[in-house]
Design a protein that fits this description.
With about 270 residues, this protein is α/β, with parallel strands linked by helices. It has seven helices and eleven strands. It is about 25% helix and about 15% strand.
Length: about 270
Amino acid sequence: MNIVLKNDTPDASSGTDTIEAFEQLYDPATGGWYMPEWMDRPFDASQVEEWRATRPLWYSPVEREVGQFYRALTAMLRPRTVLETGTNAGYSAACIARGLADAGGTGRLVTVDLRDTPHIFRGTALEKLIRFVNAHSLYVGTDTLLQAAGDATQFDMLVLDADHRYGSLVGEINRFAPLLPLGGIMVLHDTMVYDGLGLVVRDLVASGAFEVVNLPTPRTHGNPRGRRPGITVARKKLVVPPGFLVANPALLEVETNLPGRTSDDPPLI
């Protein structure tokens, strides 16, 4: 397990040039990105023209509009500590870090992923606000994550966007929601396109522990008839113990579609 720690504090504009250059790879018509399926080399602005000309659309980083929402939400809430699962290329982490910088640069983001890639925030001043933990979100110790956040006792905001199976998201929420204070915010991506995640949102609403709102997002995956990814924003209103969501054992592996459903069917939530 690898934890990347940086300690200096950037100003609010840190990393803007690199992230804005990366955003030129975005296709607003489909919500995809002209980029490698996995980041196989560090990104810099000189690659934009080449990647747009040679790379097929890839739909793994969150939509640009979602990244902008993350930045605004973080700047508005001013969390001291944020936990993200599913770092991928690092675009969403960079957007969250930009929000932290906008809010004064005193907050810290811990982002977790099994795959260690050349994240786009690396080499920018935004990296100083980010602690990357190269581990599995369901098995890394919560003490390790809190230590990476500066010996914190809680996370003020959660952004969960790793494995999209029902059982995996139930597991993440059961692990991390108890570390969220009352009034803390949890954001889930892809909840309207993946049935597995929609099922978790249903469980979350039924628990009564969170206020929940589901919002559509613009990605089409090139299929105008298909479901849009969507995001769920949940505000914690009750203290919860670890394991407060009880998973349905028959549904643990559900990901894209429940049996009998297709991607053209409406979302579960």
